[in-house]
Fold:
Amino acid sequence: MNNDHLPSDHPTVPQAKTGILIANLGTPDGYDYWSMRRYLNEFLSDKRVIDLPSWKWQPILKGMVLTKRPFTSGANYKLIWNEERNESPLMTITRQQTEALRNRARAEWGDSIEVEFCMRYGNPSTHDVLDQMVAAGCRRIVFLPLYPQYAGATSATANDQLFRALMTQKWQPSVRTCDPYFDRPDYIAALADSVTRALDGKSPSKLVASYHGMPQRYLTEGDPYHCQCQKTTRLLREALGWDEDRIDTSFQSVFGREEWLRPYTVEHVAELAKQGHTDIAVISPAFAADCIETLEEINGEIREAFEHAGGKNFTYIPCLNDDAAHIEVMMNILRENIGGWV
Structure:
C-alpha cells in the first residue's frame, strides 16, 4: 500500500497480501522431561481431545499422567529425533512441505502470497504465526489443516485455535478454511501410487490402513471421522484394483480406559500373523507427515507385535510427506479455496 497520503503520525500500512497457512498437530521442542511435559499438558488439556469435565480430568492429568508420561514419550521421541536439526521429524517434514508450497504458490500467484505453517500444540503456535502474517500485510488467509479425514480432535481444534487467534487481532483478515480431503481423486491417486512404489513388486497378503484412533463414543455423538476413514480405505482399494479382503482398516494410539474405535492395529496385526498372514504392509492415510505415531509406533511397537506373533515380512509405507504428488494435492485444494483472491 502507498503510505504517502497518510498523516505523519499514522502507523505504516503494509502492502495487502494473501496468506496460505497450513497447520499440523504439533511437536515438543525437545525430548527432555520439561519439553515433553509442556507439550503433553497443552495437548491433553484440549477439550476437543479429552472432553471429560475439568474437575475430573485435570487432577488425573496433573497428578499422574504428566508425572510419568513425559519420560516414556520422551524416550520414544528420542528414537526418531532429527538430531542434525534438533527437531522432530514432523517439524522437518512440515517445513519441507511449506517450502515446496511456497515455491509453487509464488511461481503461480506472485510475490503477494505469503505461505507459512503453524502447529496446534507447541511451536510455531497458531497465534504467533497469524500475528506475523497479519503484520506482513495478509488481509486474506486460506487455512489448510493437514488432516485428510475430519475429526473434532484434529480439524476442528485446529480451526478453533485459528478463530481464537483471530479474536486478538485489531484488524481481522478474511479467512477461508479448507474442507477435509479424504475422498479427493488426486489424494487417493497419490496414496495408491505410494503403495505401488513402496511395494516395488512385492505382494503382501494384507495391506493394513491404520488410522489414528478415537473413542467409540465420538462416533455415536456424530463425529464423521470413522466413516471418512472407511471411505478412504475403500477408494484406495478400488484405485489399486484389489479384492475387498486384501485391505483392512484399523485404528492405533489408544489412550485411557474408554472403548476406542476397533480393531486396534497392534492387536489386529498380531491376529493376522496368527492367521497365516506373515507378509503384510501398513499405511497411515490419516497422517500427512511421518511422525511419532508412524515412525515409532507403527514401525516399532506394531511391527514388533506382528513379528512376535509369527509375522515374517512387515513393510511400512511412508506418509505422503513432501512427495510431489502430495504437494500437487495441496495446491489443488488451495487453488479451489483461493479463487477470487488472487
